Amino acid sequence: MAQIEVQHQTPATVPAPSNGVVTAPNANQFVTTSLYVGDLDLNVSDSQLYDLFNQVGQVVSVRVCRDLTTRRSLGYGYVNFTNPQDAARALDVLNFTPLNNKSIRVMYSHRDPSIRKSGTANIFIKGIHFYDGIGGV
């Protein structure tokens, strides 16, 4: 497995506004500690995902999503960090990193209901038979 060297940085502090009122972030400023990891090789395990992402920051949990019946990987999973800075660093450093010789895709996992209802989403369809173009299904 490829080793990744990461320089840990102290997060910058942001001064409070002069009026003392801190406003809630809008949808474009949504901060999260949860990442979606897609395009996984079907043989990637939870421990491999943990080992890779834990090089970047403190990981709370990982999960490779699996078919309920067959227990085969669905090719995606989730990684949760203790703080948003580590999640942002992982997104920046590990997106398109090869794992089991296949580049992974890393994105924020938006659990905010307003973002989930925005109409922009990925649709996952399983159980479709492969058509090889030669007449077989």
From TrEMBL:
Residues 1-20 are annotated as: Disordered. Residues 1-12 have a biased composition (Polar residues). The keyword RNA-binding applies. InterPro entries: Nucleotide-bd_a/b_plait_sf, PABP_RRM1, RBD_domain_sf, RRM_dom. GO terms for molecular function: RNA binding. Residues 33-111 form the RRM domain. Keywords: Repeat, RNA-binding. Pfam families: RRM_1 (PF00076). Transmembrane segments: none annotated. It comes from the Eukaryota. CDD domains: RRM1_I_PABPs. PANTHER family: RNA BINDING PROTEIN. This is RRM domain-containing protein. It comes from Trifolium subterraneum (Subterranean clover).
